[in-house]
Design a protein that fits this description.
The chain is an alpha+beta fold. The protein has one domain (10-100). The protein is 34% helix and 16% strand. The chain is built from 2 helices and 4 strands. The protein has helices at 29-46, 76-92, and strands at residues 10-14, 20-24, 63-65, 98-100. It has a two-stranded antiparallel sheet with strand order 1-2. A two-stranded parallel sheet has the order 3-4. The longest helix is centred in the middle third of the chain and has 18 residues, at 29-46. The protein is globular.
Length: 103
């Protein structure tokens, strides 16, 4: 992950057991989608075995993307809830995909 998301303004951190959060400042949703696609391809190339997956025999990624300009009217909790909603939509749609949150 750190090889794909390596700009000085990118932050990668574990967010729960098997979830990670990636903050990419200064980009829009299209650029975030492009970065996730690149990461999906790199992860696919590694073919990390995953014997308990119901989706695939190797590790895959599902992602929820939110593009938002911070303001006093928004909170980090709202932002995380939007990302979570998009993530669970991606999982419900079959996993190994991303969904961009749209209001």
């Amino acid at each position: 992950m750190k090889e794909t998301f390596r700009r000085a303004s990118d932050t990668v951190a574990r967010y729960g057991g098997e979830e990670f959060i990636i903050v990419m400042s200064g980009i829009d949703d299209k650029a975030a989608e492009k970065a996730i696609k690149i990461f999906q391809k790199e992860l696919e190339r590694l073919r990390i075995f995953h014997k308990t997956s119901e989706v695939c025999d190797h590790v895959t990624i599902s992602a929820g993307i939110v593009s938002q300009v911070p303001s006093k009217a928004s909170s980090i909790e709202e932002f995380i809830n939007k990302a979570d909603k998009a993530l669970y939509t991606a999982k419900a749609e079959g996993r190994n995909r991303y969904v961009t949150y749209k209001e």
